[in-house]
């Protein structure tokens, strides 16, 4: 079993997957920052507030210490039931951005693979032998050109 596991790990696909997970994690943080720090403040400003994550509905009792608070994170940490539609919208925008970038990446890769396959097929395609009547006509023409003129 250990040998099989080593063979599995040594395959290129597993290493590629590990690299993809690491890069995906870093990419996710970049997209999260883009969403939370750039896009959502603009959307929040358009809708009348700067902090889009502060859009929520309180569904239960709020502790006396946090009465009147609009801090979503503090209320959530205190265990207050909240309907955080602002946080949900932020995550939805985050998902759309990631999905679009992945779509563009897969689309580009598919086009590159198709182009590579077409070029490979064209290179592998042997030139067709010319028909025998055309070859015979070429020989006759060449023979006539080689004769001396009188």
TrEMBL record:
Under PROSITE patterns, the record lists: MSCL
Q: What SUPFAM superfamilies would the database entry show?
A: Gated mechanosensitive channel
Q: Name one GO cellular component term.
A: plasma membrane
| Keyword Ligase carried by entry | no
Q: What keywords would UniProt list here?
A: Cell inner membrane, Cell membrane, Ion channel, Ion transport, Membrane, Transmembrane, Transmembrane helix, Transport
Q: Where in the cell is it found?
A: Cell inner membrane; Cell membrane
Tell me any Pfam family this protein matches: MscL
The GO terms this record gives for MF are: mechanosensitive monoatomic ion channel activity
Main location (coarse class): membrane
Q: How does it sit in the membrane?
A: Multi-pass membrane protein
Q: InterPro entries from the entry?
A: Mechanosensitive_channel_CS, MS_channel, MSC/AndL, MscL_channel
The membrane spanning regions, by residue number, are 12-30, 42-62, 82-106
According to its UniProt entry, the function of this protein is described as: Channel that opens in response to stretch forces in the membrane lipid bilayer. May participate in the regulation of osmotic pressure changes within the cell.
User: How does the annotation summarize its subunit structure?
Assistant: Homopentamer.
Q: Which family is this protein grouped under? A: Belongs to the MscL family.
The record, for PANTHER family, names: LARGE-CONDUCTANCE MECHANOSENSITIVE CHANNEL, MECHANOSENSITIVE CHANNEL MSCL
Its recorded name reads: Large-conductance mechanosensitive channel
Encoding gene (name): mscL
């Amino acid at each position: 079993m250990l040998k099989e596991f080593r063979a599995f790990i040594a395959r290129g696909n597993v290493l590629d997957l590990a690299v993809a997970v690491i890069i995906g994690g870093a990419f996710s943080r970049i997209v999260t920052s883009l969403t939370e720090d750039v896009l959502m403040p603009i959307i929040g400003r358009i809708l009348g507030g700067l902090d889009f994550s502060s859009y929520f509905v309180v569904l239960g009792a709020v502790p006396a210490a946090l009465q009147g608070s609009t801090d979503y994170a503090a209320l959530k940490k205190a265990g207050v039931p909240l309907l955080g539609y602002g946080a949900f919208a932020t995550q939805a925008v985050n998902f759309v951005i990631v999905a679009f970038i992945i779509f563009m990446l897969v689309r580009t890769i598919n086009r590159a693979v198709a182009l590579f396959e077409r070029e490979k097929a064209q290179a592998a395609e042997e030139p067709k032998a010319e028909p025998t009547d055309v070859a015979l006509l070429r020989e006759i023409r060449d023979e006539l050109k080689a004769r001396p003129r009188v």
